């Protein structure tokens, strides 16, 4: 099928210094039974390798591939994935945008065709989600599922409010949020007008920025359309990446930022963010104790208690408070 038959969807791929992996991601998009109108690659590196690869592509492509190199101030480490994705969506001409990380790939060749079928049947649909498998150590023969990282353990049938097509469920967005977890961006296709309405990705968040985005778009739409179909393959990073370059404490601080932001913006369901905030604060308490910062750990423990009370944690927080005084 031609690219023009799917004029609604553009694919956004941020990349940085890994052309070999990017080739695999691009190949998985070009293997789709229904092609997107455009593939937008946004490079945040400072070297020439990705640009050289792009310029070596054949002039005639089955779908439009557009390459943008984002320059950044001298001496800086470059832009994060949120900035590059936001830039890519701005450049997109389509009504819907799909996302794919440069080190991952789509494994369902009908992924975009399924989404297009839904958008054709339900023009008001704003969010389409699918499932993902995990690959550890490049062990493609034994993909992992069911670990509860994303949405794979949610009983979609029990939450369903009307099947729009075979294997696709319509869920109330807040009911889905109440189940916990979030959709990886590889599995997320969103209407561009909704993306714009929530101001895209928060560029100050460099870890689980997709979770923050997921919570905000679901708070801005009434219904989510989700399938049990596995659309993508996520390779756990073993080389340096945006996530592996962060310490455990840095990751937790970003998670805390997301929780505080969700609560301050009164996002639903409030109970979810309070539980998550309390859990993050408890983990930070233990990290700070390992750094022998007892007074600061006590402060975080008390904040966790104030966020969500439990007698067991109250006793522990009181113990830490006494310990910090002596």
TrEMBL record:
<feature type="domain" description="Glycosyltransferase 2-like">
    <location>
        <begin position="11"/>
        <end position="139"/>
    </location>
</feature>
<keyword id="KW-0328">Glycosyltransferase</keyword>
<dbReference type="GO" id="GO:0016757">
    <property type="term" value="F:glycosyltransferase activity"/>
</dbReference>
<dbReference type="InterPro" id="IPR001173">
    <property type="entry name" value="Glyco_trans_2-like"/>
</dbReference>
<dbReference type="InterPro" id="IPR050834">
    <property type="entry name" value="Glycosyltransf_2"/>
</dbReference>
<dbReference type="InterPro" id="IPR029044">
    <property type="entry name" value="Nucleotide-diphossugar_trans"/>
</dbReference>
<dbReference type="Pfam" id="PF00535">
    <property type="entry name" value="Glycos_transf_2"/>
</dbReference>
<keyword id="KW-0808">Transferase</keyword>
<protein>
    <submittedName>
        <fullName>Glycosyltransferase</fullName>
        <ecNumber>2.4.-.-</ecNumber>
    </submittedName>
</protein>
